[in-house]
Amino acid sequence: MKYLVTGGAGFIGSNFVHYLLDNYKDCQVINLDKLTYAGNLDNLKDIENDPRYSFVKGDIADPELVNKIFKDGIDVAVNFAAETHVDRSIGDPADFITTDVFGTYVLLEAARVYGLKKFIQISTDEVYGTIEIGKSSVETDQLLPRNPYSASKSGADRLAYSYFATYEVPVCVTRASNNYGFYQYPEKLVPLFVTNLLEEKPVPIYGDGKNIRDWLHVMDHCSGVDCVINNGINGEVYNIGGGNERENIEVVNIIFDQLKKPDSLKTYVKDRMGHDRRYSLCSDKTMALGWQPSHKFEECIRETIDWYVNNKWWWEKIKSGEYLEYYKKQYVDREIAE
Ligand code: NAD
Ligand code: DAU
Questions:
Q1: Ligand 2 contacts CB of residue 307 (under 6 A)
Q2: pLDDT computed for residue 335 by the predictor
Q3: Which atom of ligand 2 is nearest to the CA of 82?
Q4: Is the C-beta atom of 123 inside 6 A of ligand 2?
Q5: What percent of the chain has pLDDT over 70?
Q6: What would the DSSP string read from start to end of 280-332?
């Protein structure tokens, strides 16, 4: 089977490349990645010389390049490539529209013209918007995205569906919850807080710290996507949730406990604009295909924290240059929460 993985140098994409190579002896994997600030070939160092793997540096929004790749023949395309950070989308949404919406269109168009067996659009639980306590989102629920990131992901999610409904491109859409694991860029909650604490810096908790996210181990996300590739019905959407809903402060407390850091390093800062209070997924439909998450949160979040402790070489070089500019804009002089 020949897979095109877009965004394969990012957090989930690189874990998915590893997953494919580990699980399918005869697969071929092409990784198409623009190497934005979030793309990192260090994530793939151990497999870069694997004869089954090849890397193409390029933009999913470049029709010439994308058409050339599809023309050579692709069995399965999995579109992870995206601008992914909510805070950055609030500061400057332009790249989110170009990559997440237009880039997805370019890929779908190539899939329509050249054909393939399956096109997976990687979407997110954020498309459902904020979910009140007591409810969980099912795939047929209305989409109510509330920030430029989730709105552009919703656009791509429905555009992908339209290519199934209109042109019969074999599309499935997956909507996953918050991933944790190795190789996550240190702008996201878990790696940001762990690495700040390892540098003896305070951590910025937004608002009251009681927003709820559902934590999914990245390898459970990978196995969920694989299950949908193999068993998903074309045109359908599949939720992939971890079943581990936690208030942010609970996750933060685990990190503090594991690293043995004092509470004085917790700072409550002005909330994210439009901050969704809670996400919650019902994953019954994906489980009915045969998928089960197998990573226990309490154990695996600690293993993840340890990975950042033991892999300073990986994140120390990221926390320089563009990262420091972003960090300064986002956090330095940020008001304290009321
Ligand atoms: P990430 O930011 O770590 O990686 C994104 C990757 O896409 C990077 O390697 C980047 O270089 C690449 N990229 C960006 N623009 C590109 C372009 N125009 N052309 C080619 N490559 C480009 O993101 P992630 O956290 O690994 O997320 C991957 C996907 O999963 C995204 O589609 C995201 O919306 C979705 N998702 C993420 C989570 C999560 O918790 N991280 C949860 C649900 C869904
Ligand atoms: O739910 C899936 C989504 O999860 C994905 O679609 C996104 O690509 C991914 O970035 C993630 O979005 P979140 O906004 O939930 O992730 P983030 O790690 O940025 O924030 C997690 C929670 O922690 C959220 O409630 C905001 C809070 N937070 C985050 C940061 C960066 C803080 O309190 N302080 C911070 O500095």
A1: no
A2: 87
A3: 8
A4: no
A5: 100
A6: -B--HHHHTTT------HHHHHHHHHHHHHH-HHHHHTTSSTHHHHHHHHHHT
What is the Cα–Cα distance from 115 to 118, expressed in whole angstroms? 9
Quick check: helix, strand or coil at residue 190? helix
The tens digit of pLDDT for each residue in 229-272 reads 999 999 999 999 999 999 999 999 999 999 999 999 999 999 99
* Consecutive H or E run containing 221: helix 218-231
Mean pLDDT, range 17-23, rounded to an integer: 98
Q: Are 76 and 117 in contact (CB under 8 A)?
A: yes
The string of pLDDT tens digits covering residues 48-72 is 999 999 999 999 999 999 999 999 9
Residue whose tokens read 């791509």? 156
Q: Choose, from 149, 180, 185, 238, the residue flagged as catalytic.
A: 149
Distance CA 31, CA 8 (A): 5
The set of protein residues with a Cβ atom below 6 angstroms from ligand 1 is: 6-7, 9-13, 32-36, 38-39, 59-61, 80-84, 99, 103, 122, 124, 153, 176, 178-179, 185
Alpha helices by DSSP H, 55-171 = 63-71, 86-91, 94-95, 104-114, 148-167
Whether ligand 2 lies within 6 angstroms of the CB of 89 is answered as no
Query: What is the rounded average pLDDT of the residues 201-218?
Result: 98
Q: Which residues contact 258 (CB under 8 A, 6 or more apart)?
A: 302, 305, 306
**Annotated catalytic residue 125:** yes
| Closest among 250, 178, 245 to 208, alpha carbons compared | 250
Domain ranges of the chain: 2-180+216-240
Element (H, E) at 5: strand 2-6
**What kind of fold does domain 2-180+216-240 have according to CATH?**
Rossmann fold (3.40.50)
Report how far residue 80's alpha carbon sits from residue 179's, in angstroms, rounded to the nearest whole number. 13
For residues 188 and 120, give the distance between their C-alpha atoms in angstroms, rounded to a whole number.
Answer: 24
Is residue 206 part of the annotated active site? The answer reads no
More confident residue, 90 or 335: 90
pLDDT in the model for residue 337: 83
